[in-house]
Amino acid sequence: MFGKSLFQTVLERIEAEDPRADAEVTPHTGIPGFNAGLAFDTERTTGGDAVRQAYADMDDARSAAPEPPIAQPTPVLEAPKPPPRQRPAHLDRLTPAQVAEDLRLSNADTPATLAEKRRSFASQNHPDRHAPEDRKAATMRMTMANMLVDEALRRLKRGLPISVTSQHPR
To answer: What's the confidence (pLDDT) of residue 8?
Structure first.
């Protein structure tokens, strides 16, 4: 029992309990001092017959079992296409008069109200807030709005009225 693997011990016990007395035992011919462990030769050991029979019984049971039905592939449903993206209407208003109208510039504006109008306009029109294909129009609107607000601030410093129609004749 000592110096043998657990598997070898089990095989010896199976051989001892085997009712077949005519079974011949083949001595281990492996490397001296090397335990075979789980790597054993089932063809040369008497206990191997029981192991082979157990595997044969399992194979018979598997072959007798009905074949599982072949799973039918599930149909792939296409995701609904999103509606085509529409460009925001305010990005088509690119003339200075239209941008000034969107800014709602008036002669009553002060530097504080102009700064607030610039921030409000930027929150809706900044290029970073739009799709890549709309950024060019958004950049043009922001550039124009900044120029209009800067011009309005210059006019306020000089004491001139903010006249929307005379700022950029085109």
So the answer is: 84
